[in-house]
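Bench notes, afternoon.
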Amino acid sequence: METLLAICLGIGLSAACGFRVFVPLLVMSIASLSGHLTLAPGFQWIGTYPALLTFSVATILEVGGYYIPWLDHLLDTMATPAAIIAGTVITAAMVHDTSPFLKWTLAVIAGGGAAGLVQGTTVLARGASTATTGGLGNPFLATIELGGALFTSILALMAPLLAVGFIAVVLFFLGRTIVRKIRKVQLPPVQPGLS
């Protein structure tokens, strides 16, 4: 049961990387330094003061960058591979007492996959926002993404199973909304009298 909770914790924090890459790492560092999170051997560096300082600066720069209109698109381009890598590292840092093969397989598939799915959804949402609002809605979307990263990270620490369920629900509804918008844009108008 402990291994399952650790995996869910890793997946929840990894999914939060899809919203913002450095927020979950900062939350992990704080939780580790305060004694609320035990990291797997080889990943204790996440819970050090130099890592805390680095993640704090990176988080501030990343969050601020998403409020600059032209920079948010550049960050989205760079954030996709970064989120997958961060998600993989986070899940590996949470999985204890397993073989390295199993640990890294879980980390890549579950952690990297969760981060990639969430990041891909946010990229599509930002694209839809840019297309429909001319980019004026992007700061609002950036605020929602930041809130999602904070909420998911904290929820993953407090209730890992609930965090995984929350991510699944969010991905389902966001994905469904995006697919509907894409279909509306792609479908040609129906002309009367033609079948």
